[in-house]
Amino acid sequence: RHLKKYFPIKTGLFNRVVGHVKAVDDITLGIYEGETFGLVGESGCGKSTLGRVVLHLQRATSGEVFFDGKNVQAMNSQQLRRLRQDMQIIFQDPFGSLNPRFQVRDIIGEPLRVHQRASANDIDKKVVELMELVGLDASRRNRYPHEFSGGQRQRIGIARAIALNPRFIVADEAVSALDVSVQSQVLNLLMKLQKELGLTFLFIAHGLNVVRHISDRVGVMYLGKLVEVARTEELFANPLHPYTAALLSAIPRPTPHRKKERIVLQGDVPSPANPPSGCRFHPRCSFAQEQCRKVAPELQIVSSDRQVACHFPLEYSEMKVLIH
Ligand code: SF4
Ligand code: MG
After folding, report:
1. Does the keyword Secreted apply (predicted)?
2. In ligand 1, which atom is closest to the CA atom of 313?
3. 34 touches 215 (CB < 8 A)
């Protein structure tokens, strides 16, 4: 609720603070148990920071995070230890996030050793079980990360993330570094694990095409703000925010005769240290009007499960989009 994460910009000898990068700027968001919430936006829009703040890996500048109705910031050390097990993260880079000098058995078994102080024998049994669960050959558990392919390394990262039976996982660009064919295998694995283990995912990606397959709902971020939230089918069928529409029109369409006008994003992403006045998207928006330059639109509920932050949201019909 009302999450903010500001990073100070310091200069000179005395580290004078001259401003702030508003990586996450007042975001309120609910994620339902058992769902996959896809979070998309161009790089630098603050989605990874939001993921880390939600996991309490970084402290929010202000605002609150609730897990199971409990305020995370108010938890004592014992509750936080429990929370560490309930919430896990899968990183983008399966190369950088696995220690190259550790055998895979030690990488996957590490959380069990640290959090549960399990015996070597129990850890080994659990590692075999986890490797089988994620589709890896458990007889290779004393090999090193470099002996595995990119997709297999991502499976190692996933096995480690589920070792402690978490309930909530943030997957931060978990498939972005993989080839498209390997991507879908890993996405399928994540969906299978979700069903079998009752997991809830916050699935972060920069492209909408990746989240489409896996997400129940999607949130679109722009410069630290959430600009649209919708059920996945609705978002793809009828984007309400011009930025969502622009992201969608960047996806190649399989049916060329149903051509929608391509909305081209003008200019580059502005700096989050010095965001544009009013609606942050206005310098790049083809529908911007005077009001947009002055007044920041609030995220508003437009129907059940549907929120948009825009003074002039696109209408629910393809025709209207073209008339605008
Ligand atoms: Fe475009 Fe205005 Fe909507 Fe911002 S508020 S997205 S500038 S129409
Ligand atoms: Mg990121």
Report:
1. no
2. 3
3. no
Q: What is the pLDDT of residues 57-114, one digit of tens each?
A: 999 999 999 999 999 989 999 999 999 999 999 987 766 778 899 999 999 999 999 9
Q: Is the CB of 220 under 6 A from ligand 1?
A: no
Q: Which CATH number is 31-215 given? A: 3.40.50.300
ipTM score for this prediction: 0.97
292 lines ligand 1 (CB under 6 A): yes
Nearest-atom number in ligand 1 for the CA of 282 is: 7
Nearest atom within ligand 1 for CA of residue 312:
8
Ligand 1 proximity of 282 Cβ (cutoff 6 Å) = yes
d(Cα 53, Cα 58) in Å, to the nearest integer?
Answer: 5
Helix, strand, or coil (residue 276): coil
* Predicted TM-score (pTM) of this structure: 0.91
pLDDT digits (tens, 9 = 90+) for 98-154: 889 999 999 999 999 999 888 999 999 999 999 999 999 999 999 999 999 999 999
Domain map (residue ranges) of the chain: 31-215, 239-324
Indicate whether residue 312 lines ligand 1 (CB < 6 A). yes
Task: Assess contact for 13 and 34: CB atoms under 8 A.
Answer: no
The radius of gyration computed from the CA coordinates of the chain, to the nearest angstrom, equals 21
